[in-house]
Amino acid sequence: MIQWTQRIVATWMLLAAIIPAQAGERPASQIRFAAYNLQNFLWLESTQEDGSIIRRFKPDESIAALVEVIVELDADVLMVSEIGSEADLKRLQGLLADRGLKYNTLVHLEGADDVRMLGVLAKVPLVENFSRGLVPFEAGGQREFIRRGILDVALEMP
Hints:
By secondary structure, the chain is an alpha+beta fold. Helices cover 17% and strands 37% of the residues. The protein has helices spanning 60-73, 86-98; strands spanning 7-10, 33-41, 43-47, 53-57, 77-83, 105-109, 117-122, 126-129, 136-139, 142-145, 151-155. The strands form four sheets. The chain has a four-stranded mixed β-sheet, with helices on one face. Strands 1-11-8 form a three-stranded antiparallel β-sheet, with no helix packed on it. The chain has a two-stranded antiparallel ribbon with strand order 3-4. The longest helix is centred in the middle third of the chain and has 14 residues, at 60-73. It is flat. The protein starts with 6 loop residues before the first strand and ends with a strand.
């Protein structure tokens, strides 16, 4: 059984900011975790006045800024919200690798929200994925679903 101290549980329902991190050297025995709301790192569609649909990705200058923040954080485990598809998470992984920040583990979770999803990038190996995409609950007598699911993974710690 995996010890609770080795499990990362991210419910994400109220996550909307970066967990503060101190820059600098740290002992090899320490793991740095960061959570970051990417604010729509995905393709969005908008309908124009003439009825045409335009698809656009997050602007390049916004992507460059968030990549810079993530590189500065240098987290061992990066938990992200408002990521699009798994391909979008792989794109972010590649952009970070181009800047020297290599994450070998990638976990992408699709929930009831089919546009904005959750993800984990980690420098340490995945042991097990306990995530649940469709998590029902009752509100006002109606069955609802947690919009982005529950991202819950166990990672190998040094």
